[in-house]
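Page 42, continued from yesterday. The earlier attempt failed because a stray header line got pasted into the input along with the sequence. Redoing it now with the clean sequence only.
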Amino acid sequence: MKKIGLAIALGKDANSHTRTFIEAINYSLKNFPEFKQHSLKIVNDEKSSEGGEKAAIELVEWGADVVVGHFSSFAALAALPVYSRNAIPLILPASTACELGNYNQRSDIELLKYQKDNAALMTYCIDDCIINHQGGTVYAVVQNNDYANRMMEYIPMLADVKIVRDIPSRVEKRDTYLIVGYSEFACAKIRQLSQTQIYRILLVDDSDSHDVYNACILRPQRLSRVRSVSHISMHGVKRPYWNETLLALSLACGLESREEGKANTNLSFSTYLGLQDFDKTHCYGDSILVSEDVD
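This time it went through. Structure tokens are written below.
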């Protein structure tokens, strides 16, 4: 039996991704006997640096053999040194910070992740907006907080896109809007934008949630999202981070603490959801970015 630590924003810090994480855990307990054999402890990382470090210390003191979670990159980056010092592998279903690439430099596995990093994500989003626009202006509406400002740093400098904090006073029907920010921010902005029908709204990362979809008043011609696709044959769904959480939980059951894997090498693990391959950066091999319209 293994001790599997689980870390996510809880209580007042929770969001729609918290619900996905917990439902995926409960789904795994119900459907996978291999998962039910292990002890679980869930802690609140407050989706912040301070909360991530506190959560990591709590799980270390509990005796965790492996940890799954930390959807917030801020929490993950603060927690990683704690886990690394204690030789506890961290499996990240959702975090996208480029700084995560600084880990796995030693001979043992420090982290495994399922998402492309922010640089790849923002480049893909901007390219998709520009390639698929209908002659209007492309806007990136960026929340003024640490999370969104960090994402904004990876918007290509010469891209033909206007970066704004608020919706322009004049909204044209052919415009495209990429929303970068937490789900509460995205809900507020999509309500403003959807008072009239425009061409396209694109959601990504924390702005991509059912709460945001439901905040739409007049649906744009295209309500889209960019996400990382990780295929599961029987148990997968399109909800953001559902597939990745199921895969991460299955991997946690088979991954041993202090398991060794040379830096800059591919890795493969056999799990109850099938074989999982990871590339030289320890990113899940079957993870690709796609743009799709929300039904």
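Notes: The chain is about 35% helix and 20% strand.
Reminder to self: strip header lines before submitting.
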